[in-house]
Amino acid sequence: MSVSAKELVRAVRRAASPVDDVADAVDPGAAVDELVGTVETPAEGNGAAGAVVPDPGGLSALRKEAEKAANELAAAQKVLDKRTSDLKASNDALTRKLKDLAAAETALARMRRPIADLVELVYQQPVGDGVFSYLTGDVNEEMLRAQSDASALAQARQLQMDAIAKVYADKQRLAAEAQELRATNLLAAAQVEVEVSTLTKRSEKVVQSLTKALVKLGIKIDRVGRAAFACNPLRIDATKDYPNGLIPKNILCPIQQRGHLLRADAAIAFVSLNEAYTRQFGQPMCVTDAYRTLAEQQSVYYRRPGFAAVPGRSNHGLGMAVDLCGGVQTAGTPQFRWLEANSKKYGWFHPDWAYSNPYEPWHWEYDPEIDSLR
Q1: Dihedral sign computed on CA atoms, order 137, 139, 144, 150
Q2: DSSP one-letter code for 38
Q3: Distance (Å, rounded) from C-alpha 80 to C-alpha 224?
Q4: What's phi and psi for 286, nearest 5 deg?
Q5: How far is the C-alpha of 272 from the C-alpha of 263, rounded, in Å?
């Protein structure tokens, strides 16, 4: 079965689901079924270099759908992380504000107490005859000064009471804002968590479909599913935790050529390329080498000086290079020319240096950025 570029684009667009509208996402199983549907493709030809070949089983389309799902999941996770970070920053700022308000309230209380005590003392100990003297008009300078002081103290006390009332009002306002902000952010974060969960399930379903397709094409999956994990293109970052040539084989994906392993995305792309090659030439590609351990790199380096990268720097040690045989090892053959014309559709290419320095027509590398199906 095969899928045209236009049909693939339409299917991917229908399957695509922005983070904000993830609840309306297309069912992955339906998207996968549509992606692997058979449409017309140009004739295969008889092995010519530029002949266009179909995509058996829709494996390339499945691979791209899995990668797209991974990108959407990563984007949603970034949104969730950003909102979580914003929530923490907002809460920290509000906590500082409330602490400042509490400190201001304490300071005002300390300032208010002496004035209140003094005002109370003035009223308790009036000067002269008090109210009677004031009413009869027998008021001296001392009494007027005392009354003026008492009035000023009362005004000062009232001003401080007003200031304290404002502090309380500000505190209540900020507390209400803090509660509303927390509620809003928590709701937003919860919504993104749901979106992440939905995208995760969607990705898993696509990967399950991809794994089933690989099994049908001869990729061996062991009973506990280790190979299924190793062939999951959403988990290729696991290989980046290890140095060149020291990647555990249980996190590398097997290809159809027994005994050879590659990084998951490179392996899946190579399987697609191999299926197309098989349709074109009637037999699968011949592989002499794929992933190389550091020890294997050292052995090749010393056995074939000038024809191998410095140990620890080879793309073979990253699980992203193969050495081919079966005609491809000789430049100008139909097999070599066909790969030159078609390999980039699957992310594989013959590097420039391998044309001359040193000359290695058999060496091919994987680069997901050049994949024409992206």
Answers
A1: negative
A2: -
A3: 33
A4: -95, 125
A5: 14
